[in-house]
């Protein structure tokens, strides 16, 4: 297969995974975006420009995560590899539990989809399969692709699959974001290989309840976001995060660790948002280097468009 375009732009949302009990399964897309401009070059050169998050530390060569995902997707599509000029404007913070790596992977795959002549070979199902393989878990990639809230699951040899959930219109989200990073690989490394059956049963019930709470019964969010499978085990590698979650929950606020942390995601009903954000602000105000960000849900997921030469960038 040949390329069908040589210049595309991609916008991809941040995501918050797990949402408490839904470890490696539930996730939600947030209206904060990385934007990428991708040009196929006639030479085999790779040029990477980065503005914003990660500008000081991401690589500028073939090892850049977007380039790696884009190359993997061109291979899946049977399209030729090409030189690349990538210009990234990054707003999703790295290593905070807001899905920056999944966003980079999804953006790379969707850039390839927009570049190739037949995008159907990289449809949303194929994009999710490839992104989940590259990430190692599907719960960030699914909402980054589909938008809204999603349930993702591994379907054996068929790879990852996902469905979107209906979201109650009164759902309000707030992120408490620290300046310190924690690599997801590190936070996954502290999880045990085995958990008590009672804890697995507890999380199964809460995850099922959370689907109902997110869709129809936001009054149940506090009970529905309880977790026994990952947050406690990770408390030593993110003590401030864990304390914030515990303090907020003690005040009746549905706080969870966002993804693998260290960001805290708070879910509430619109009518309770002022109280919840005041409580979060009061707690975070006493700690340096944390910020409170009201977040909207992204409903669209990743978007891409081919750029006609001569049109504005
Ligand atoms: N836009 C990006 N461009 C290049 N690399 C990225 C980008 N976003 C994330 N990464 C890579 O992923 C790492 C963060 O991934 P991870 O530890 O999974 O945290 P997060 O919770 O932010 O996904 C960064 O340190 C960087 O290596
Ligand atoms: N289920 C994963 C989610 C990781 O999300 P991230 O945004 O921290 O990459 C986990 O909890 O490890």
UniProtKB/TrEMBL annotation:
Function: Catalyzes the ATP-dependent phosphorylation of L-homoserine to L-homoserine phosphate.
EC number(s) on file: 2.7.1.39
Pathway: Amino-acid biosynthesis; L-threonine biosynthesis; L-threonine from L-aspartate: step 4/5
Classification via Pfam families: GHMP_kinases_C (PF08544), GHMP_kinases_N (PF00288)
Enzyme class: transferase
NCBIfam families: thrB (TIGR00191)
Catalytic activity: L-homoserine + ATP = O-phospho-L-homoserine + ADP + H(+)
Residue ranges that the Swiss-Prot or TrEMBL entry lists as coiled coil: none
One Gene Ontology biological process: threonine biosynthetic process
GO molecular function: ATP binding; homoserine kinase activity
Any one annotated GO CC term: cytoplasm
The GHMP kinase N-terminal domain, residue ranges: 65-148
Keyword Cytoplasm: yes
Lineage: Bacteria, Bacillati, Actinomycetota, Actinomycetes, Micrococcales
Keyword flag Kinase: yes
Protein name: Homoserine kinase
InterPro entries: GHMP_kinase_C_dom, GHMP_kinase_C_sf, GHMP_kinase_N_dom, GHMP_knse_ATP-bd_CS, Homoserine_kinase, Ribosomal_Su5_D2-typ_SF, Ribsml_uS5_D2-typ_fold_subgr
Location within or outside the cell: Cytoplasm
Limits of the GHMP kinase C-terminal domain: 216-280
First and last residue of the signal peptide: none
Family designation: Belongs to the GHMP kinase family. Homoserine kinase subfamily.
Binding-site list for ATP: 93-103
Record keywords, A-Z: Amino-acid biosynthesis, ATP-binding, Cytoplasm, Kinase, Nucleotide-binding, Threonine biosynthesis, Transferase
Main location: cytoplasm
């Amino acid at each position: 297969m040949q390329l069908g375009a040589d210049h595309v732009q991609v916008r991809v949302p941040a995501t918050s995974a797990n949402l408490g009990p839904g470890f490696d399964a539930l996730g939600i897309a947030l209206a904060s975006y990385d934007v990428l401009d991708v040009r196929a070059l006639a030479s085999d050169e790779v040029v990477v420009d980065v503005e914003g998050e990660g500008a000081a530390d991401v690589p500028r060569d073939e090892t850049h995560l977007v380039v790696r995902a884009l190359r993997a997707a061109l291979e899946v599509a049977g399209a030729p590899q090409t030189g690349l000029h990538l210009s990234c404007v990054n707003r999703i913070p790295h290593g905070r539990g807001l899905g920056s790596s999944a966003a980079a992977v999804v953006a790379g795959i969707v850039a390839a989809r927009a570049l190739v002549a037949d995008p159907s070979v990289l449809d949303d199902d194929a994009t999710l399969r490839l992104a989940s393989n590259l990430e190692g878990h599907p719960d960030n990639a699914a909402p980054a692709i589909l938008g809204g809230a999603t349930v993702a699951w591994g379907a054996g040899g068929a790879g990852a699959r996902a469905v979107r959930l209906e979201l109650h219109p009164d759902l309000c989200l707030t992120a408490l974001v620290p300046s310190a990073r924690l690599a997801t690989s590190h936070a996954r490394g502290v999880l045990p290989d085995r958990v008590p059956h009672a804890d697995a049963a507890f999380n199964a019930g809460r995850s099922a309840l959370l689907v109902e709470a997110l869709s129809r019964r936001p009054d149940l969010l506090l009970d529905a976001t309880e977790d026994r499978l990952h947050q406690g085990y990770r408390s030593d590698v993110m003590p401030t995060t864990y304390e914030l979650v515990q303090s907020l929950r003690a005040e009746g606020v549905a706080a969870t660790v966002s993804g693998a942390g260290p960001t805290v995601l708070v879910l509430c009903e619109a009518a309770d948002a002022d109280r919840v954000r005041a409580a979060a602000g009061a707690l975070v105000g006493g700690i340096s280097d944390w910020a409170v960000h009201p977040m909207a849900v992204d409903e669209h997921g990743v978007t891409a468009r081919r750029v006609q030469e001569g049109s504005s960038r």
